[in-house]
Amino acid sequence: MRNLPMHTFPTYTFWARPNGITPADPSKIAPPPALWPKHAATANSLPERFCSIPPAATPASPTPCSAPLSDSPSRSAFERKRILQAYGANIIYTDPAEGSDGAIKVARQYAERDPDLYFYADQYSNDANWRAHYETTANEIWQQTEGRVTHFVAMLGTTGTFVGTTRRLKELNPTIRCISLQPDSAFHGIEGAKHLPSAIMPRIYDASVADENLEIATEDAHAMARRLAREQGLLVGVSAAAAVVGSLQVIDRLKTDRLKGERRKADRLEEDLRATIVTILCDSGEKYLSERFWNEE
Predict the structure, then answer these.
(1) Domain 4-27+130-295 has CATH 3.40.50.1100
(2) By Cβ atoms counted within 10 A, which residue in 60, 117, 137, 270 is the most buried?
(3) 234-264 residue pLDDT tens
Protein backbone atom coordinates (compact mmCIF):
# COMPACT_ATOMS: atom_id res chain seq x y z
CA MET A 1 0.00 0.00 0.00
CA ARG A 2 1.18 3.52 -0.70
CA ASN A 3 -0.13 6.85 0.47
CA LEU A 4 -0.33 9.89 -1.76
CA PRO A 5 -0.24 13.35 -0.16
CA MET A 6 -3.02 15.11 -2.03
CA HIS A 7 -3.21 18.58 -0.60
CA THR A 8 -1.11 20.44 1.94
CA PHE A 9 -1.96 23.66 3.74
CA PRO A 10 0.38 25.44 6.17
CA THR A 11 -0.99 23.42 9.10
CA TYR A 12 -3.24 20.86 7.41
CA THR A 13 -2.06 17.75 5.61
CA PHE A 14 -4.39 15.60 3.53
CA TRP A 15 -3.49 11.98 2.80
CA ALA A 16 -5.47 9.70 0.49
CA ARG A 17 -5.13 5.92 0.60
CA PRO A 18 -5.66 4.58 -2.97
CA ASN A 19 -7.49 1.27 -2.82
CA GLY A 20 -8.62 1.14 -6.44
CA ILE A 21 -5.33 0.41 -8.18
CA THR A 22 -6.71 -1.69 -11.03
CA PRO A 23 -10.17 -1.91 -12.61
CA ALA A 24 -10.98 -4.99 -10.55
CA ASP A 25 -9.69 -3.70 -7.22
CA PRO A 26 -12.18 -1.50 -5.35
CA SER A 27 -11.91 -0.91 -1.59
CA LYS A 28 -13.30 -4.41 -1.12
CA ILE A 29 -9.88 -5.85 -1.89
CA ALA A 30 -9.37 -6.13 1.88
CA PRO A 31 -12.51 -8.04 2.92
CA PRO A 32 -12.86 -10.81 0.27
CA PRO A 33 -10.04 -13.08 1.50
CA ALA A 34 -11.64 -12.89 4.94
CA LEU A 35 -15.07 -13.75 3.56
CA TRP A 36 -14.18 -16.91 1.65
CA PRO A 37 -12.05 -19.31 3.79
CA LYS A 38 -14.66 -21.10 5.88
CA HIS A 39 -16.68 -21.82 2.75
CA ALA A 40 -13.77 -22.78 0.50
CA ALA A 41 -13.86 -26.51 1.23
CA THR A 42 -17.53 -26.96 0.44
CA ALA A 43 -17.34 -24.59 -2.53
CA ASN A 44 -14.52 -26.51 -4.15
CA SER A 45 -16.31 -29.80 -3.58
CA LEU A 46 -19.28 -28.70 -5.68
CA PRO A 47 -18.32 -28.47 -9.37
CA GLU A 48 -21.41 -26.42 -10.25
CA ARG A 49 -21.46 -24.21 -7.19
CA PHE A 50 -22.08 -20.51 -7.79
CA CYS A 51 -21.01 -17.53 -5.73
CA SER A 52 -23.69 -14.92 -5.23
CA ILE A 53 -21.76 -11.67 -5.41
CA PRO A 54 -24.05 -8.94 -4.06
CA PRO A 55 -24.83 -5.80 -5.89
CA ALA A 56 -22.54 -4.62 -8.63
CA ALA A 57 -19.51 -6.00 -6.82
CA THR A 58 -16.36 -6.95 -8.68
CA PRO A 59 -14.46 -10.00 -7.35
CA ALA A 60 -11.11 -8.57 -6.25
CA SER A 61 -9.48 -11.98 -6.17
CA PRO A 62 -10.28 -15.45 -7.51
CA THR A 63 -13.18 -16.96 -5.59
CA PRO A 64 -13.41 -20.59 -4.49
CA CYS A 65 -16.59 -21.00 -6.54
CA SER A 66 -16.74 -22.40 -10.04
CA ALA A 67 -18.74 -19.47 -11.40
CA PRO A 68 -19.78 -16.17 -9.85
CA LEU A 69 -23.38 -14.99 -10.03
CA SER A 70 -23.71 -11.23 -9.70
CA ASP A 71 -26.87 -9.26 -9.01
CA SER A 72 -26.41 -5.76 -10.37
CA PRO A 73 -28.68 -2.73 -10.78
CA SER A 74 -29.16 -2.26 -14.51
CA ARG A 75 -28.03 1.36 -14.16
CA SER A 76 -24.52 0.24 -13.17
CA ALA A 77 -21.68 1.62 -15.27
CA PHE A 78 -21.08 -0.15 -18.58
CA GLU A 79 -17.44 -0.92 -17.71
CA ARG A 80 -18.44 -2.51 -14.42
CA LYS A 81 -20.73 -4.92 -16.25
CA ARG A 82 -18.01 -5.78 -18.76
CA ILE A 83 -15.51 -6.53 -16.00
CA LEU A 84 -17.95 -8.94 -14.36
CA GLN A 85 -18.53 -10.61 -17.72
CA ALA A 86 -14.77 -10.95 -18.18
CA TYR A 87 -14.66 -12.91 -14.93
CA GLY A 88 -17.32 -15.22 -16.37
CA ALA A 89 -20.11 -13.92 -14.16
CA ASN A 90 -23.74 -14.63 -14.93
CA ILE A 91 -25.28 -11.21 -14.33
CA ILE A 92 -28.89 -10.78 -13.25
CA TYR A 93 -30.00 -7.18 -13.69
CA THR A 94 -32.40 -5.69 -11.19
CA ASP A 95 -34.69 -2.66 -11.25
CA PRO A 96 -32.53 0.49 -11.53
CA ALA A 97 -35.03 2.42 -9.43
CA GLU A 98 -34.27 0.14 -6.47
CA GLY A 99 -30.51 0.63 -6.73
CA SER A 100 -28.32 -1.71 -4.72
CA ASP A 101 -31.22 -2.60 -2.42
CA GLY A 102 -32.96 -4.36 -5.31
CA ALA A 103 -29.82 -6.37 -6.03
CA ILE A 104 -29.46 -7.29 -2.35
CA LYS A 105 -33.01 -8.67 -2.28
CA VAL A 106 -32.45 -10.81 -5.36
CA ALA A 107 -29.11 -12.13 -4.05
CA ARG A 108 -30.79 -13.14 -0.81
CA GLN A 109 -33.59 -14.88 -2.68
CA TYR A 110 -31.13 -17.04 -4.64
CA ALA A 111 -29.13 -17.92 -1.53
CA GLU A 112 -32.22 -18.77 0.53
CA ARG A 113 -33.83 -20.77 -2.26
CA ASP A 114 -30.86 -23.08 -2.74
CA PRO A 115 -28.11 -22.61 -0.10
CA ASP A 116 -26.28 -25.72 -1.30
CA LEU A 117 -25.86 -24.21 -4.74
CA TYR A 118 -25.23 -20.56 -3.92
CA PHE A 119 -22.82 -19.02 -1.45
CA TYR A 120 -23.86 -15.49 -0.50
CA ALA A 121 -20.96 -13.50 0.99
CA ASP A 122 -23.39 -10.81 2.23
CA GLN A 123 -20.83 -8.09 2.85
CA TYR A 124 -23.57 -5.89 4.34
CA SER A 125 -24.07 -8.29 7.25
CA ASN A 126 -20.82 -10.24 7.38
CA ASP A 127 -18.65 -9.13 10.32
CA ALA A 128 -15.58 -10.25 8.38
CA ASN A 129 -16.08 -7.10 6.30
CA TRP A 130 -15.49 -4.50 9.01
CA ARG A 131 -13.00 -6.71 10.84
CA ALA A 132 -10.74 -6.80 7.78
CA HIS A 133 -10.48 -3.00 7.91
CA TYR A 134 -10.10 -3.07 11.70
CA GLU A 135 -7.12 -5.41 11.37
CA THR A 136 -5.48 -3.94 8.25
CA THR A 137 -6.63 -0.54 6.95
CA ALA A 138 -6.65 1.23 10.32
CA ASN A 139 -3.25 -0.10 11.37
CA GLU A 140 -1.72 0.84 8.02
CA ILE A 141 -3.07 4.38 8.34
CA TRP A 142 -1.69 4.64 11.87
CA GLN A 143 1.72 3.29 10.92
CA GLN A 144 2.16 5.27 7.72
CA THR A 145 1.12 8.58 9.26
CA GLU A 146 3.32 7.71 12.25
CA GLY A 147 0.37 8.20 14.55
CA ARG A 148 -0.25 11.77 13.37
CA VAL A 149 -3.70 11.13 11.88
CA THR A 150 -6.26 13.46 13.48
CA HIS A 151 -9.25 12.98 11.14
CA PHE A 152 -10.52 9.97 9.20
CA VAL A 153 -13.08 10.55 6.44
CA ALA A 154 -14.81 7.81 4.41
CA MET A 155 -17.85 7.15 2.25
CA LEU A 156 -20.55 4.75 3.42
CA GLY A 157 -21.46 1.83 1.17
CA THR A 158 -21.45 -1.52 2.89
CA THR A 159 -20.12 0.64 5.78
CA GLY A 160 -17.39 -1.91 6.55
CA THR A 161 -14.50 0.39 5.69
CA PHE A 162 -15.69 3.20 7.93
CA VAL A 163 -16.88 1.08 10.86
CA GLY A 164 -13.83 -1.19 11.03
CA THR A 165 -11.23 1.52 10.46
CA THR A 166 -12.90 3.90 12.92
CA ARG A 167 -13.18 1.33 15.70
CA ARG A 168 -9.48 0.58 15.57
CA LEU A 169 -8.34 4.19 15.15
CA LYS A 170 -10.41 5.18 18.19
CA GLU A 171 -8.63 2.50 20.21
CA LEU A 172 -5.26 3.83 19.10
CA ASN A 173 -6.22 7.44 19.80
CA PRO A 174 -9.70 8.33 21.11
CA THR A 175 -9.29 11.98 20.03
CA ILE A 176 -9.23 11.11 16.31
CA ARG A 177 -12.36 12.53 14.69
CA CYS A 178 -14.05 10.13 12.28
CA ILE A 179 -16.45 11.60 9.73
CA SER A 180 -18.73 9.45 7.57
CA LEU A 181 -19.97 10.58 4.16
CA GLN A 182 -23.07 9.63 2.19
CA PRO A 183 -25.02 10.94 -0.82
CA ASP A 184 -27.29 13.90 -0.15
CA SER A 185 -30.42 12.21 -1.54
CA ALA A 186 -31.94 8.83 -2.27
CA PHE A 187 -31.58 9.46 -6.01
CA HIS A 188 -27.89 9.98 -6.61
CA GLY A 189 -25.10 9.06 -8.98
CA ILE A 190 -22.38 8.07 -6.50
CA GLU A 191 -22.19 4.40 -7.41
CA GLY A 192 -21.34 2.12 -4.52
CA ALA A 193 -22.44 4.65 -1.89
CA LYS A 194 -25.59 4.38 0.20
CA HIS A 195 -28.05 7.04 1.29
CA LEU A 196 -28.78 5.28 4.55
CA PRO A 197 -32.07 7.01 5.48
CA SER A 198 -33.70 5.60 2.35
CA ALA A 199 -31.82 2.29 1.99
CA ILE A 200 -31.71 -1.13 3.60
CA MET A 201 -29.56 -0.54 6.66
CA PRO A 202 -26.43 -2.76 6.64
CA ARG A 203 -26.43 -4.94 9.73
CA ILE A 204 -22.74 -4.22 10.32
CA TYR A 205 -23.31 -0.47 10.42
CA ASP A 206 -22.76 1.18 13.80
CA ALA A 207 -23.88 4.81 13.81
CA SER A 208 -22.33 5.38 17.23
CA VAL A 209 -18.75 5.28 15.92
CA ALA A 210 -19.11 8.40 13.75
CA ASP A 211 -18.35 11.79 15.23
CA GLU A 212 -20.18 13.41 12.34
CA ASN A 213 -21.87 12.65 9.03
CA LEU A 214 -21.65 14.85 5.94
CA GLU A 215 -23.77 14.68 2.79
CA ILE A 216 -22.17 14.92 -0.65
CA ALA A 217 -23.87 16.04 -3.87
CA THR A 218 -23.35 13.92 -6.99
CA GLU A 219 -22.47 17.02 -9.02
CA ASP A 220 -19.68 17.91 -6.59
CA ALA A 221 -18.31 14.36 -6.80
CA HIS A 222 -18.33 14.48 -10.62
CA ALA A 223 -16.54 17.82 -10.63
CA MET A 224 -13.90 16.52 -8.21
CA ALA A 225 -13.32 13.38 -10.32
CA ARG A 226 -12.55 15.62 -13.31
CA ARG A 227 -10.35 17.87 -11.20
CA LEU A 228 -8.31 15.01 -9.74
CA ALA A 229 -7.73 13.55 -13.19
CA ARG A 230 -6.74 16.85 -14.82
CA GLU A 231 -4.85 18.52 -11.99
CA GLN A 232 -3.45 15.62 -9.98
CA GLY A 233 -3.19 12.88 -12.60
CA LEU A 234 -5.40 10.60 -10.49
CA LEU A 235 -8.15 8.71 -12.29
CA VAL A 236 -10.56 7.82 -9.49
CA GLY A 237 -14.17 6.70 -9.33
CA VAL A 238 -17.10 8.86 -8.29
CA SER A 239 -17.23 7.53 -4.72
CA ALA A 240 -13.50 8.20 -4.31
CA ALA A 241 -13.97 11.72 -5.61
CA ALA A 242 -16.85 12.19 -3.17
CA ALA A 243 -14.50 11.20 -0.33
CA VAL A 244 -12.10 13.94 -1.41
CA VAL A 245 -14.95 16.46 -1.53
CA GLY A 246 -15.88 15.58 2.05
CA SER A 247 -12.26 15.73 3.21
CA LEU A 248 -11.75 19.19 1.76
CA GLN A 249 -14.94 20.31 3.47
CA VAL A 250 -13.43 19.20 6.77
CA ILE A 251 -10.21 21.09 5.99
CA ASP A 252 -12.09 24.23 4.95
CA ARG A 253 -14.04 24.18 8.19
CA LEU A 254 -10.88 23.81 10.25
CA LYS A 255 -9.35 26.76 8.41
CA THR A 256 -12.48 28.84 8.95
CA ASP A 257 -12.58 28.03 12.66
CA ARG A 258 -8.97 29.06 12.99
CA LEU A 259 -9.44 32.31 11.12
CA LYS A 260 -12.47 33.18 13.25
CA GLY A 261 -10.33 32.62 16.29
CA GLU A 262 -12.89 30.40 17.98
CA ARG A 263 -11.50 29.49 21.37
CA ARG A 264 -12.33 25.96 22.30
CA LYS A 265 -10.53 23.59 24.62
CA ALA A 266 -6.81 24.13 24.30
CA ASP A 267 -6.06 20.53 23.42
CA ARG A 268 -8.68 20.53 20.63
CA LEU A 269 -7.41 23.83 19.20
CA GLU A 270 -3.88 22.48 19.19
CA GLU A 271 -5.13 19.35 17.39
CA ASP A 272 -6.76 21.45 14.65
CA LEU A 273 -3.59 23.47 14.14
CA ARG A 274 -1.72 20.29 13.22
CA ALA A 275 -4.49 18.38 11.51
CA THR A 276 -3.74 15.33 9.35
CA ILE A 277 -6.82 14.23 7.40
CA VAL A 278 -6.91 10.74 5.89
CA THR A 279 -9.45 9.39 3.42
CA ILE A 280 -9.90 6.34 1.22
CA LEU A 281 -9.87 6.51 -2.58
CA CYS A 282 -12.24 3.57 -2.66
CA ASP A 283 -12.51 3.03 -6.40
CA SER A 284 -10.60 3.68 -9.62
CA GLY A 285 -12.02 5.62 -12.54
CA GLU A 286 -11.64 3.03 -15.28
CA LYS A 287 -15.11 1.65 -14.59
CA TYR A 288 -16.77 4.98 -15.33
CA LEU A 289 -15.07 6.26 -18.48
CA SER A 290 -18.26 5.95 -20.53
CA GLU A 291 -20.07 8.35 -18.19
CA ARG A 292 -20.91 11.77 -19.65
CA PHE A 293 -19.72 13.81 -16.71
CA TRP A 294 -16.07 13.53 -17.85
CA ASN A 295 -16.86 15.87 -20.78
CA GLU A 296 -18.67 18.47 -18.69
CA GLU A 297 -17.06 21.69 -17.56
Answers:
(1) yes
(2) 137
(3) 999 999 999 999 999 999 888 877 666 555 5
